[in-house]
Each structure stands twice: as structure tokens, then as C-alpha cells.
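Form 7-S
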Amino acid sequence: MDKRINRRSFLKRGAALAGGLALTFSTSIATLADESQPSQQPAGDSVRTRTFFALATTRDDQDKACARHAANKLFASPEAADSNRAHPGCKCQVIKGGELPEATWSALFGNPKAIQRDAVDRRWGWVGQTLKTN
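Output:
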């Protein structure tokens, strides 16, 4: 059976796929945030952590740029997340992305008292390597 796809059905299917991907990515970030909370360890054995921030897509803003941006960007502060959006008019929510060991956070963003980078991208080789090794 030869079923042809016209422009309208192609765009509908693409929009549905983009919406599904956006929901998947925003759910993944929320899950990551829940799972990355520091575990309850006895005093003295705990690792110091620092919070990183992220963007989560909303129902009003589910385009591909936002989905990729939200899935891959980590920010040093809520202000950095708010000022580094995927595009003008982006309606993604600024959320706590989770906790990182202080050494990892510093390797990504710099000294907390003098931040060198306010945003990093998981797709950058050195960022992925830093996240894996620390």
C-alpha cells in the first residue's frame, strides 16, 4: 500500500514528535534533579555539593531549539539560566537541575566566588568528560 504524506500531515507528525521529545527531555531533567539530591550520609563522610540550574520546556514552548537547549545546558545560577535562553520569547521554566560535587561544579563553572562560565553544554567534549569522571 503506497500511502503518500502531504505537507500538512508531515507537519502534524513533526509537531507531535517534537512535543513528545520536549516532554521526554523535561521529564528527564526533572528525574535527574530528583535523583541527584545528596543522599543522607553520616556527618563527616558527606561530600559538599553545589546546585546547578536548568531550563524545562513548557506546554507553551515545545520547539526543537528549546528541547535541545533544555536537555543539554547547565547553569551556575537561576539568573544565568534566565539570560541564556534558546531564543527570544522562550517560555521555559528555570528549575533546580540538581546537585553536583563541589569539585565538579568548580571544574564546570569556576570558583564559586569568581565564576568563569555561567553556562556549559553537555555536548561539549570537556563538559561530558568532566561529568563522567567526577
